[in-house]
Design goal:
alpha/beta, Rossmann fold, 3 domains, 12 helices, 41% helix, elongated, binds guanosine-5'-triphosphate, binds magnesium ion
Length: 373
């Protein structure tokens, strides 16, 4: 058993190398950030350095040759003791350095069992800072002997993830009232498909009487897309070209207890177009505005969308394309910061099947990769 050092640009890459070379149960002895000077002194590059040794059951290679100066008769127990001594000296040194602010510990004193949970989070695209916070939380909550129990670790982790997720109740008709629901969001995230899924579910499963309104008149195809769904589901549809037409469009729908408004996709960068959307919605006076976000989008785009669509008072989130996302870590970060509840998740293209009301535990398990869609 000997310690080896691995350097990489990110913790994820470093841990992948540890796993590749030393096996799945490698023991992480230390992690730190190091700066490497670039050629000609052109700035420095941050690297992650992980020191690790083979775990007790790591891939077995040829029996290690005793190092020079160690007699062949020396037992493996003695070797272990010698190594242990070196290791604790090294630990003391590192601790001393870190106390003096010389080394930035990324995962100080993290029990070995939690390192694999940490690596799993990184695999699921959870950003490093959040992953560290989650495993640190688990380490703080559990007693040292409890971290050996994988089901406890996974439950505690799930609880921590759940604390970042707020859930909105599913959309419901209110007797004697006409609920107005608008879906807004960036282009191509699945707004129209989701409107169709919701409308079909409301009509077929709940017996509501929904009507559809589209303000997406920029593209003929967009209106046709919704019209096709309206015909299949047998629902009234009104097309609105200007904010002033909104009231007329509502009246044209006739006896409905719910109006679902489909809107044109807006780039979060296009403030003018988002303002225009706000003018339409000011006339529609929706009871709920759901911001539709694709789980495939990068964390930065998700954050920008949440910020920019605040202008149209988007107060709930619908997460689409969970079936296509490689990891949901970025989504988790944004949910933690967005301060808006999730109402629905969608998990495929099929109308109306691939939609479900958001549920905290399910979403947390999906984010942690404990469940698939
Ligand atoms: N895999 C997958 N695809 C989806 C999901 N929801 C929608 N889509 C697909 O995403 C594509 C775009 O969907 P639309 O509903 O047209 O998206 P939109 O937000 O209305 O697009 P714009 O109106 O152009 O902004 C279509 O091919 C949908 O079938 C989902 O949950 N999973
Ligand atoms: Mg659309």
């Amino acid at each position: 058993m000997s310690a080896r050092t691995f350097r990489a640009a990110t913790m994820k890459q470093a841990l992948a190398r540890v796993r590749r070379d030393l096996g799945g149960d490698a023991v992480i002895l230390d992690t730190r950030e190091v700066r490497r000077r670039r050629l000609f002194g052109l700035g420095a590059r941050e690297l992650i350095e992980v020191t690790a040794s083979r775990g007790p059951h790591g891939p077995v290679t040829a029996p290690a040759q005793p190092p020079e100066g160690v007699s062949a008769a020396m037992t493996s127990g003695a070797l272990h003791a010698q190594f242990g001594e070196q290791l604790s000296r090294l630990h003391a040194m590192v601790e001393d350095l870190s106390r003096h602010g010389r080394i930035d510990h990324l995962l100080p004193d993290l029990p070995g069992e939690l390192v694999s949970a940490y690596a799993q989070l990184l695999d699921d695209e959870v950003p490093e800072i959040l992953a560290r916070r989650l495993v640190r939380h688990v380490a703080d909550v559990l007693e040292p002997e409890q971290v050996h129990r994988p089901e406890l670790v996974s439950d505690t982790l799930r609880n921590a993830v759940e604390s970042y997720i707020a859930i909105a109740p599913p959309i419901a008709a209110v007797p004697g009232a006409r609920r107005v629901i608008a879906l807004v969001g960036p282009t191509g995230v699945g707004k129209t498909t989701t409107v169709a899924k919701l409308a079909a579910t409301f009509k077929l499963a709940h017996g509501y009487r929904p009507g559809l309104v589209t303000v997406d008149t920029y593209r003929i195809a967009a209106v046709e897309q919704l019209r096709t769904y309206a015909e299949i589901i047998d629902l009234p549809l009104s097309v609105v070209n200007a904010p002033s037409e909104m009231r007329r469009a509502f009246d044209e729908l006739g006896e409905v207890d719910m109006v679902l408004i489909d809107t044109a996709g807006r780039s979060p960068r296009d403030e003018v177009k988002i303002r225009e959307l706000a003018d339409f919605l000011a006339e529609a006076r929706p009871d709920e505005v759901h911001l539709v976000l694709s789980a495939v989008a990068a964390e930065r785009s998700l954050r920008a969308a949440v910020e920019r669509f605040a202008v149209v008072c988007a107060d709930r989130l619908i997460l689409t394309k969970l079936d296509e996302a490689d990891g949901l870590g970025g989504v988790l970060t944004v949910l933690g910061q967005a301060d808006r509840p999730v109402s629905y998740i969608t998990t495929g293209q099929a109308v109306p099947d691939d939609i479900e009301p958001a549920a905290r535990t399910r979403l947390a398990r999906l984010i942690l990769g404990l469940e698939v869609v």
